[in-house]
Amino acid sequence: MRHARAVFLALTLAATPAVARPPKETKRISLDVTRANVHDVLRMLADVGRLNLVVSEEVQGTVTLSLRNVAWTEALDVVLASRGLGMERRGSVLRVASLKTLQEEAETLARLKQAREQTAPLRTWLIPVNYAKASELLPHVQGVLSPRGRVSVDARTNTLIVTDVEAPKLP
After folding, report:
1. Boundaries of each Secretin/TonB short N-terminal domain copy (predicted)?
2. Total domain count for the chain?
3. What's the confidence (pLDDT) of residue 23?
4. 27 Ramachandran zone, left/alpha/beta (phi>0; psi -120 to 50)
5. How far is CA 27 from CA 38, 46, 72, 120, in A?
6. Whether residue 24 is found in the same domain as residue 51
């Protein structure tokens, strides 16, 4: 435990400050650790990136690194790759889990989205078109419809008639 704290302190001190840099530039760090707990290294990297961190219970083990003047995001990618891990970022929260777990969750979400599209009620929009022929826009609109969606043109009023599932509202 004492060794882990010393490693964490050394890693934290190795992070270079972002003085006189553009805000978009990522911080560069140097790491030299031997058999450091992967949780401690991930916590340090999240701290450097000013992110909140959630680590899955399945993430375990140690990591040995010798990195000089690399972007903290590159160091994070290397640590994740070395342990077969992946990450998911939502705002300021970084979630780390095994690649298998993240892939299974992505597949489940895709199936859920598809099921919602199949059962969602259809809605119809009348979209008047100015400065173009609605029939010329037809292929472009068809390209963004769901599998259940359809579009037609009322040439008399130059209006697109779109029937599709409503897009989910974003939080």
Report:
1. 51-99
2. 2
3. 45
4. beta
5. 20, 12, 6, 45
6. yes
